[in-house]
Design a protein that fits this description.
Length: about 280
Amino acid sequence: MKYAVDTSIQGVYSNPKLVGELALLAEQSGWDGFFVWDSIGGEGPIADPWITLAVVASVTETIRIGTAVTPVARRRPWKLARETVSVDHLSSGRLTLGVGLGDPPTTEYEQFGEDPDTLTLARKLDEGLDVLTGLWSGEEFSYRGNHHRIDQATFLPKPVQSPRIPIWVGANWPNKKPLRRASQWDGVYPIYWHEGENKMSPIILKDIVQYVGEHRSSSGSFDVVAAGAHDVSNRSELVQFAKAYRDIGATWYASPIGPHIGDVNAVKTWLSLGPPRD
């Protein structure tokens, strides 16, 4: 199992230079991945994820980077195609694109006059993924959908990664449709947001792994990300917690740095301890 940091780019972490420092420290301390949130609305300062990832890509060399997760429905997929390919080249092929609907819809969509209807957002997400992968091909591409239309566009350069940039799909248990969507791509990044906290237990993740497996049509590699938590004061318990995820099929364990954690020095100390490997 690999170990990642999943960091907010809000509040004190809205400074891309600081996030770059954290990513470099994570890489130097043995972490395998560094992923950033992608939000546009809400209170307080918020950074742009792609400018932040460009900084992260520039200061690191080996750690996998990406978003957790990008609401594709609120983006022009052709613009997102340019951004993702640029970061993939800047990082020498280390980008993973996490995708989802975006939450909450009030601040991600409705606040800016966009339709927050979940079904509409899901359809835009699916079309957006079709457009992304078509443009990533580097071949002439046309598309006719309910929300997007493209006439004979050729986007170059292609991504560094082949056949394309990996796509992980976010899901909020027990909603099953995002899990079925994830089964058609390269990985799933599920959460179980309950009573204001992520309650993704190994037992729930086991059910998710089983459900996604029943809908997989490919025998290729597939990533399952366990959204965990960090506990500076009890590392041995954290190690056992991560091991429990690994034993039921998780391929990644992602420790979050939320915007409420304002003590940057404590975060740096925690990162320097390295991932919770047993």
